[in-house]
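#lab-general

N.A. 3:47 PM
ok so I finally got the sequence cleaned up, no stray characters, all 113 residues accounted for. can someone with queue access submit it? mine expired

B.Y. 3:52 PM
send it over

N.A. 3:53 PM
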Amino acid sequence: VQLVESGGGLVQPGGSLRLSCAASGFPFSTSPMRWYRQAPGKERELVASISSAGGINYLAESVKGRFTISRDNAKKTVYLQMNSLKFEDTAVYYCNVPRFGSWGQGTQVTVSS
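B.Y. 4:20 PM
back already:
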């Protein structure tokens, strides 16, 4: 199982980023996927979850209306579109496949003026 996140970076408040997680080594199209994040000094928290068919199962209250999760099963990729970014969104963002308990290496998102 391999998960490779990309798309992080430095962005100003109010800006947007789209994170990608490329998956391999497991049946992606039948696997629910999740995005987590971990801010400095805080525990890792679940941000969003998507079913194998693309239905959004969960969005954290703190990101509702700003973030959305989606997937492309043909490309074996899950996305996290982040709009209206805030300082408090600064964290390392991780892709996860709960079915196999596997994690990517994470991608840093820094929201700063």
